[in-house]
Amino acid sequence: MNKAIKIVFMGTPDFAVTTLKTILDHNYTVVGVITAPDKPAGRGRKLNESAVKVFAKEKGLHILQPTNLKNPAFLEELKALEADLQIIVAFRMLPKLVWDMPKHGTFNLHASLLPNYRGAAPINWAIINGETKTGVSTFFIDERIDTGEMILQQDIAIDPSENAGSLHDKLMTIGSDLVIDTIKRIETGTVKTTPQPEDAIIRTAYKLDRDNCKIDFSNTMDDIYNKIRGLSPYPAAWCELVNNNDVLDIKIYKAEKEIESHSLENGTIISDKSTLKVAVKEGFIKILDLKLPGKRNMDVKSLLNGYRFDEDAKLR
Questions:
Q1: How far is CA 55 from CA 15, 20, 33, 120, in A?
Q2: Whole-angstrom distance, CA of residue 242 vs CA of residue 218
């Protein structure tokens, strides 16, 4: 039997799909799904549908894809859905006209323990910064990004060898459960909120770009290792390979730490038929998976079958 509360769901990537599926599995009524407009992708510039749209179509849900969230026609269509509650997972900033519309308001699921890691890439930055714990939070939307009153939180340990992909999948699952718990409290009138502390030292989840994804081999071994796993599998940490007369941008997906004393310059490459290591302050970063320009990502043994490094080769 469908529950009485009527929900509009807003989201775009895979992370959001799990939550939408869980809401449906708990027999809640989803009267509309708002997701990003289709975007051209690939060489053929074929229109690419968001993961949420693909799933919502399979379930026969009513889908809206506004380019402008303040467009009067969109606002009228949204209002006509008569939602009691709106739930946001990995979408975009909403105008007050939208988030203030339902009687129970609009809450967001965010993949961090707020107030830390507000912003676009909380999963990546938690690992990049060497955190040992993160989690998920639900909070009511307000005028600013990720600052509204918190409803619930659930924490999780970050494994020392975890990458952003595996942590994403864990948070996706516990996040969907937290959303259900949050809906139940709103439904029953037992929801309690807590203002986010503003006097704390807050770390930010900056948008990832080419500059902040580049490896600096003068950093500590831990910093380099954490950056590689915090950006794997996407968008991937990168650096320049200087080999013979070539300077190539390469991506590194997986590595290990080897603590060892040496006198080599940072970035110096040591390789044989099966291993590839780069010198850093406290030892070596042993590269396990990487990608050269125009090639698929591959393990180092496969690469070394047909690629040779000059004795003066280095990463920078």
A1: 12, 9, 10, 23
A2: 16
- Rounded to whole angstroms, how far apart are CA atoms 296 and 284? 24
Answer for the pair 127, 163: CB distance below 8 angstroms, yes or no: yes
Q: Which two tokens stand for residue 86?
A: 């709106």
CA proximity to 7, closest of 145, 141, 101 = 101
Residue 76 contacts by C-beta under 8 Å, 6 or more apart in sequence?
none
**CB atoms closer than 10 angstroms to residue 10:** 26
Its CATH class, for the domain covering 221-315, is alpha beta
pLDDT at residue 44 is higher than 60: yes
Q: Is the pTM of this model over 0.85?
A: yes
- Measure Cα distances from 27 to 4, 10, 57, 99, 138 in Å: 10, 18, 17, 23, 20
Q: Domains of the chain: which residue ranges?
A: 6-188, 221-315
CATH architecture of 6-188: 3-Layer(aba) Sandwich (3.40)
Dist. CA 210–CA 238, nearest whole Å: 8
Burial state string for 28-67 with b = 16 or more CB within 10 A and e = fewer than 16:
bebebbbbbeeeeeeeeeeeebbbbbebbeeeebeeeebe
Tens of pLDDT, residue by residue over 159-187, are 999 999 999 999 999 999 999 999 999 99
DSSP string, 96-114: HHHHT-STT-EEEEESS-T
d(CA 280, CA 259): 9
